[in-house]
Prior knowledge:
Shape: globular
Structural class: alpha+beta
Helix content: 25-40%
Number of domains: 2
CATH class of the largest domain: Alpha Beta
Bound molecules: (3R)-3-hydroxy-3-methyl-5-(phosphonooxy)pentanoic acid
Strand content: 15-25%
Distance between the termini: 38 Å
Order of helices and strands: EEEEHEHHHEEEHHHHEEHE
Radius of gyration: 20 Å
Number of helices: 9
Amino acid sequence: MPAFTATAPGKIILFGEHAVVYGQPAIAVPVMQVRARATITPDIRGNAGAVRILAPDIGLDKMLDELDSAHALVAAIEGVTSLLGVTHIPACTLKVSSSIPVASGLGSGAAVSVAVIRALAGYLGKPLPNEQVSALAYEVEKIYHGTPSGIDNTVIAYAHPVYFVRSLTPGPSPAGRGEKPTIETFTIAKPFTIIIADTGISSPTKETVGDVRRGWELEPARYERLFAAIGSITRAVRQAIEGGHPERLGPLMNENHELLGEMGVASPELDRLVFAAQESGALGAKLSGGGRGGNMIALAAAGSEAQICASLQNAGATHTIVTRLGD
Ligand code: PMV
């Protein structure tokens, strides 16, 4: 059996985070500058089922059967073996690494899952289509997020911009099971540049999603108005992107950021970066992902990228990425 490597990009949510959990659309794009990588190397002297897991970034070097069954890597591996009906993986070493910052809204967990699932299925000689890779990664996402919408695993597995609408099963909780989201890819008629800036504050999505859930339970009408307003923005954004008017995204970003603030998922650090971007020539800016920390994004007018990045760094950004969409 040959060695097998798979990689998966990071992602950012352009519009619609949080509201997407409640059935509104969201738009996410892959970020190719950062990646997770999984490599499986056969161990010809090992016994079947002896799988060594190496993840130097987090200091992990253990045999698969020494890890907790709730560990995300175990869940990803078991998802593949049970789908493919494999009882013993031929002895091997799985090495996982990633340049995607963790807990910052760039989809590091989903990217690691997608890379591991693809590498293992490939190693076992049964590569899986994107839809199945995404579905397996979604099961692992539940360990990280509690009630994920499924957008991260989708955009990362397909590595293409997506317009995503979760299908909600009837009932009081938005955490439906067996759901099949609407996933539409769309055309970026005119390329545009997004700057991603990290607050350096790690903020687990599970917590902000849980807080929004509690807010929604306490004040359903107010939260549903916020979700609906974000949904309208996201629909307008899709039209602007497909119609070749990306500059229209700027004011919509500012508006979406305000609405996320009203939902309680902004923070002084995120607000400071959003303000710094707006003041240094960005056409608009907003937090991206779960919020409270992690990353924000800004829409850069042509030629203003360096100035915006410098201003973001002065305002406390620990890292910036310039990404061009639609080229
Ligand atoms: O923090 P991120 O980028 O992994 O994304 C969270 C997006 C939410 O809408 C807040 C939650 C979800 O599952 O969609």
